[in-house]
Amino acid sequence: MSEKMELTIGHLYPDLLNLYGDRGNIRCMVKRLNWRGIGATVKEIKINDKIDFSELDIVLLGGGSDREQKLVCEKLSEIQKDFKEYVENDGVVIAICGGYQLLGSYYQMGDEKIEGLHLVDLYTIQGEGRLIGNITIQSDIIEMPITGFENHGGRTYINDTKPLGKVVTGYGNTDEKGYEGIVYKNVIGTYLHGPLLPKNPQLTDYILKKALEKKYDREVVLKELDDRHEIRANQYAQTRG
Amino acid sequence: MAFRKVLAVKTARFVNFVSKKLGKQGVTMAGKYALKVYPNLLRDLSKEVREKIYVTCGTNGKTTTNNMLANFFISEGKKVICNRTGSNMLAGVVSAFVLEADSKGHIDCDVAVIEIDEASARRVFPHFKPDYMVLTNLFRDQLDRYGEIDITMNLLNEALDMAPDCELIINSDDVLVASFAEKSGHKYTTFGISEPCDENPASTTEIREGRFCMFCSSQLEYDFYHFSQLGSYHCPKCGFKHPQIDFNATNISLSKGLKFTIEEKKDGEVVKTRDIDANYRGFYNIYNILASYSAARYGGMELKGIDPILKDFHPENGRMESFKIGSTNVLLNLAKNPAGFNQNISAVMEDDSDKDLIVVINDNAQDGRDISWLWDVDFERFKGANVKSIVVSGLRAYDMQLRFKYSEIKSKAIMDVGDAVKYMLKGHTDNLYILVNYTALYSTRNMLKSMEKK
Q1: Which of A22, A229, A240 sits opposite B363 (nearest CB)?
Q2: N or C: where does chain B have the smaller number of CB atoms within 10 Å of the terminal CB?
Q3: Catalytic residue status for B370
C-alpha cells in the first residue's frame, strides 16, 4: 500500500491547442497531485510526435483557433484508432472547447465539414453568432457547481450521451437544451475554460481519482486539501453571470 | 452642410464640457454625438489635414508609440492632432478631430497621429484613408471580444483593403505582423532588433503565438526570441523568413533607462546611425521608440530635436507612471494581456531592490470578460524578484489569488483597490509596484494622484 503513486499527463499539441489558459489545467492537476505526495509527469506532445497512449494516464485536449484546429485534425486521423482504444479501455480524457468538438464525428462549418475523432457520439454545427460569457452548471458527478467561461461558435448535439451537467446560467452545448458537456466512460468534454480545473477542485479531484484508480486498479481515497481559496473563487465566479 | 458641421462642433464641445463636469473619463461621448449630428464630420475634418495621416495599430504599445510619434512631429514644428488619451474606437477618433476644430468647423493641422483599435480600423477607414499605418505587434488579447488573433488580422485586413495606398511601418520581429504585411500587398518598411540582448530578463516558458508558417503551415524555426513570439524566424519549407530590418536597434543597455543605437539601413547597408538615451524602463519600450522613430523618419522627418523628448519622458497615463505617497515610491503600470504582463514582470525584475506588489484584475467588458489569460502569464518569475508581499485586488481578486496559489506564491486578497494600497503603505518596503488591467487603470491612477496630493 505504501508504494508511491504517480500519474503521467499527456498534453496534446500545446503548440497548437493552447488557447484559453489550458496550461492552468495542467498546472492545477500537477499541484493537486504533488500536494498529496503523488508524482506527476507532464508529456507535451507536439504535432509531429508519436503518441504512445499506454504511457498516459490523463489526456488533455484543449482548444485552438479555427486555423490551428484544422492543422490538428489532419494529424488526428493518424492516431484515431489508438485514441479510441484508450477511451474504450477507460482512459481518462479532458477535452475542452475545440478539443471537445474534436471528440465527435464532425464539425460542420458552413460548407466545410471537418472530420472528428469519432470517440464520443456527438457532432457540432457552427451556429449564428458565438455563445460567450460566464457559465455555471450543476453536474451529478460532483456536488460543487462547475463554473467557468464559454466562447464558442459551434453548437454541439450529444444524442443520447450523458451531459456533464445542467446549465444554471449561461448557454452550454446549444443555446436551447439546457445541458453542457458530456461524460462518456472516463472522458469529460466541455466548453468551460477559465481555466476549467483550478476553480473546480472537486472536478479536478474526480478526474485524478479516476486516473489513479484505473492505473492502480483499486479504490483510491484522495487526501483532503485546504480548498478555501478555490471554493471562494468558485462561489464568486457564479455571481459574475 | 456647413451649418450641420458647425452644430456638430458645438455639440461636441458641449458634451465634452458636461462630461468633464460630471467627472467622466475619456472623451468618446463628444465624438459619438457630434457624428450623430453630422455623419460626414470626420471625413470633412480629416480632409483638412495638410500633410499626412498616421494611424497606430497593434495589441500592445499603441498609446505609448502614438503619443511619442505625435511629440516627434511637434518637435519638428508640426501642428498635430492626436487622440492622446487612448480613446481608440471610432467615437474617440472623431473626438480628437472635432475638439480641435474652430467655431467655423475647421482644423489647423499638419499631421494627424491617431491610434486605432485593431477591430475598429474598418469603421474608421471609411471616413479617411491613412497614409501610413504603424503596426506594433499582435498578441492574444481580450479573447472574448475578438475571438482570436486570426480574427483580429482579418478585421485589420478588411480595413487596409479600403486604403490601398497606405504604407506600413511594421515590427518585423513579430512573425504575425510580418506575415500580415507580406500578405497584404501593401508597401512596408521594417523595424526590429537583429540580435539577442543579454540584459533582457526574458522568460523562456512563455506562450508563443505564430509557431507555424502563415504561408505553408510548416513549423517555423527560430534562432532566438526577445519575448513572446518576437525574434528571428524562418520557415524551413517555403523559405518565408524575417524580412530585412530597415531600422535596427543595437548596442542595447537597460541598466539606467534605455540606451541603444538605431541603425538606418538601405539595401542592407547602414546609411545613418542615431544614439538613443531614453528615460524609459522595460525592454519592450525599445520597440515603442523604434516604432515612433521609424515612422517619423520614413515620413521624411529629420528628428533633430527628439533627445529632450526621450530624456525627460514622464509617463502620465498609467504606463510605468510613478507616484510618491508619503515615503513610498509607487509605480503604476497597465498590463492587460499575457505578453504585456510578462514584459511587466521583466520590468519589475530589472529593479533588484525589495518591493511589494499589488495586482488588480477586473473582468469588465473592456478588460475582456474572460480571465483565462491570467494562467498564460509566467507569474512564477516573481519568486526571483525580491517581492516581499503581494496583495491581489479588483473584481477577480480571488481568481488572481488562485493563480498565485498554483505557483506556490502567497498573496492576500483585498477586493477594494484603495484598501489594498493603504494596506501596503504601512509597514512595507516603501517600494510598491501596482499592476492593473484596463478598467482598473483610471480609477487606480486617480486615487494615487489624490493620495499623492495629501
Answers
A1: A240
A2: C
A3: yes
- The verdict on B398 touching A (C-beta cutoff 8 Å) is yes
B148 → closest Cβ in A47, A48, A65: A65
What are the Cα distances from residue B222, in Å, to A76, B90, B225, B236?
26, 38, 7, 10
With respect to residue B430, please indicate whether it lies within any of the assigned structural domains.
Answer: yes
pLDDT tens-digit readout, B267-321: 889 999 999 999 888 899 999 999 999 999 999 999 999 999 999 877 778 888 9
ipTM (interface pTM): 0.95
Is B150's CB within 8 Å of A67's CB? yes
Looking at the domain assignment, is residue B34 inside a domain?
A: no
In a domain, B41, yes or no: no
Q: Report the gap between the CA of B74 and the closest CA in chain A (Å).
A: 42
**B217 lies in the same domain as B124:** yes
B394 and B266 in a single domain? The answer is no
Residue B41 above 70 pLDDT? yes
Of the candidates B223, B370, B416, B419, the residue annotated as catalytic is B370
Q: Which of B279, B312, B345 is the last residue of a domain?
A: B312
End of a domain among B263, B283, B312? B312
Output the CA torsion B338→B343→B346→B348 (10° steps): -90
When the pLDDT of each residue in chain B is averaged and rounded to a whole number, the result is 92
Do B414 and B286 share a structural domain?
A: no
Same domain for B284 and B400, yes or no, is no
- The C-alpha of B431 sits at a distance from chain A's nearest C-alpha, in angstroms, of 28
Phi, psi of B330 (to 5 degrees): -115, 130
Range of the structural domain that residue B243 is part of: 49-312
> E strand or H helix at A209, and its extent?
helix A201-216
Set out the domains of chain A in order of their start, with CATH numbers: 6-238 (3.40.50.880)
Q: What is the domain-level CATH number for residue B400?
A: 3.90.190.20
| A153 beta partners | none
Q: Any idea what the CATH number is for the domain that residue B93 is in?
A: 3.40.1190.10
Question: Are A230 and B402 in contact (CB < 8 Å)?
Answer: yes
Contact yes or no for B376 and A47 at CB 8 A: no
Same domain (yes/no): B229, B344? no
- Among A65, A200, A239, the residue to mutate for chain B (most B Cβ within 10 A): A65
- How near does any CA of chain B get to the CA of A61, in Å? 16
| Chain B closest-CA separation from residue A89 CA (Å) | 31
User: Which of B143, B212, B376 faces A151 most closely, judged by CB atoms?
Assistant: B143
Q: What are the C-alpha distances in Å from B96 to residues B16, B29, B38, B161?
A: 11, 11, 15, 24
* Cis peptide bond upstream of B236, omega within 30: no
Within a domain: B28: no
Q: What is the pLDDT of residues B121-177, one digit of tens each?
A: 999 999 999 999 999 999 877 655 555 788 889 999 999 999 999 999 999 999 999
Residue of A60, A130, A192, A240 best to disrupt the B interface, most CBs of B under 10 A: A240
**A232 contacts on B by Cβ (under 8 Å):** 398
**What is the pTM for the complete model shown?**
0.84
Angle at CA B79, nearest 5°, toward B1 and B50?
A: 50
B219 contacts on A by Cβ (under 8 Å): 15, 47-48
B328/B302 Cα distance (integer angstroms)? 41
Task: For residues B99 and B210, state if they share a domain.
Answer: yes
CB < 8 Å to B217, chain A: 71
Distance CA B132, CA B155 (A): 17
Same domain, B344 and B249: no
Structural domain count of chain B: 2
R_g (Cα) of chain B, nearest Å: 22
User: Looking at the structure, do residues B59 and B189 belong to the same domain, yes or no?
Assistant: yes
